[in-house]
Fold this protein.
Amino acid sequence: VATTRAPATFWAAGTGPKVEGDFKTQALSAFESLGERLSAAGLSFKDVVFLRLYVVPEKDGTSDGKARDEVYGQFFNNAKNAHKPARTTIAVSSLPRPDWKIEIDAIAVAP
C-alpha cells in the first residue's frame, strides 16, 4: 500500500526583545516577538521543536534561571500548550544589540 505524505515545513528564526528592562521583561518580549514571527509564518508555539536561548550573564556570572523558566512556562509546558520543545541555554558575553539580555533561536516544523 502506497501512502502519500505531505512535505513538512521547516522554519527557523532568531529574535530578541523589543523593550529595555530587566532579564524577565526582555525574555517575555523576546518570546512574544517569537510568537509574532511564528504567526506570520502560519505557525504557532505548538510547532516549535527546538529553542536555543542565548543569555548574557550578570557581572557576577549568574543568570536568572527562575525568571527564564517562568517566562518559558507562559508559552510552553502549561495548560494551554502542554508541548515541550527541546531547548538549550547558552551564556554569551554579548548579543548583536548591546542592550539585549536574551536572544532566541527557534526551529519549527509543521506538516
Notes: The beta strands are 9-15, 48-55, 86-91, 102-110. The chain is about 25% helix and 25% strand. The longest strand covers residues 102-110. The two ends are 21 Å apart (CA to CA).
